Amino acid sequence: MKEQIGLDRLTGLIAFARAGALGSYSAAARSLSVSPSAISKSIQRLEKQLGITLFTRTTRSLVLTAEGRELHERALRLLRDAEEIEQIAKQARAEPAGILRIAASLPVGIHVIAPLLPAFCARYPKVTIDLRLSDRVVSLVDENIDIAIRLGELADSSLLLRRLPPYQIGCYASPEYLARCAPPQHPNDLSGHTTVNLRYQNTGQLFRWPFRVGEREIEMLPSSTIIADTSEAVIAAIVAGAGIGMAANFMAASRVSEKKLVPLLGDFAVERRDLSAVWHESRRANPAVRAFLDHMLTPF
């Protein structure tokens, strides 16, 4: 007669599967909404129960042993089956409910997702939002994410996708700066202005400013006095009067309405249609996912 699996062992297998997929106890803990010590203890118990070592641990890395690699894919299948059971249960309820895990970059999360949440939660009070903001591209399956909001053209994948409403990229400056310097009338006039620019954290490259000139789109790389590696810092600097900066309209809208920023070169602003919501096939019929996707279709 086969020994029945205990709850501790099942918990350990889930912790092992997630830690092996994400490469650290901390990442696994965030994904499962528990503490890193809980992950560590669960895996230690599992190793003792199985009589094998699953990971080689150093101060900086977590590497599967040969025995761990052999068991990891099976543990991942167990985890996916458990998540599928959870999704089937959610679908059966029909009414949106439970935890909805959403991943986005920091600027998109702050300016696009967060403002939508109060109305969504008021309409669907049984849904709890778990919003995770990071500039890295998360794995929806490994990190148990229901919806990810991604900016830019996406590589081919098996994920389902819905394009979100278009947005514009344009120039902005504070009223204080414009009181000192006459606003530019053409992108070429920027050479006579102080500018603030963005450096991408993942590549180290500077943001090239796009403009629509006639039927063409051109790019310029201004010589900037201030360069920051987050969009929020760029916005904060231009609000404080540091010069002219470029941003998406959904990021600048609140500062414009507060009269802290003034749009510039509006005739040359470019439109982008590269903001997308993506989700895994297993979430297709999840009522909370469907409801949130519909909720997001309001133009920015």
TrEMBL record:
<feature type="domain" description="HTH lysR-type">
    <location>
        <begin position="8"/>
        <end position="65"/>
    </location>
</feature>
<dbReference type="GO" id="GO:0003700">
    <property type="term" value="F:DNA-binding transcription factor activity"/>
</dbReference>
<keyword id="KW-0238">DNA-binding</keyword>
<comment type="similarity">
    <text>Belongs to the LysR transcriptional regulatory family.</text>
</comment>
<dbReference type="Pfam" id="PF00126">
    <property type="entry name" value="HTH_1"/>
</dbReference>
<dbReference type="InterPro" id="IPR000847">
    <property type="entry name" value="LysR_HTH_N"/>
</dbReference>
<dbReference type="GO" id="GO:0003677">
    <property type="term" value="F:DNA binding"/>
</dbReference>
<dbReference type="InterPro" id="IPR036390">
    <property type="entry name" value="WH_DNA-bd_sf"/>
</dbReference>
<dbReference type="InterPro" id="IPR036388">
    <property type="entry name" value="WH-like_DNA-bd_sf"/>
</dbReference>
<dbReference type="InterPro" id="IPR058163">
    <property type="entry name" value="LysR-type_TF_proteobact-type"/>
</dbReference>
<keyword id="KW-0804">Transcription</keyword>
<keyword id="KW-0805">Transcription regulation</keyword>
<protein>
    <submittedName>
        <fullName>LysR substrate-binding domain-containing protein</fullName>
    </submittedName>
</protein>
<dbReference type="InterPro" id="IPR005119">
    <property type="entry name" value="LysR_subst-bd"/>
</dbReference>
<dbReference type="Pfam" id="PF03466">
    <property type="entry name" value="LysR_substrate"/>
</dbReference>
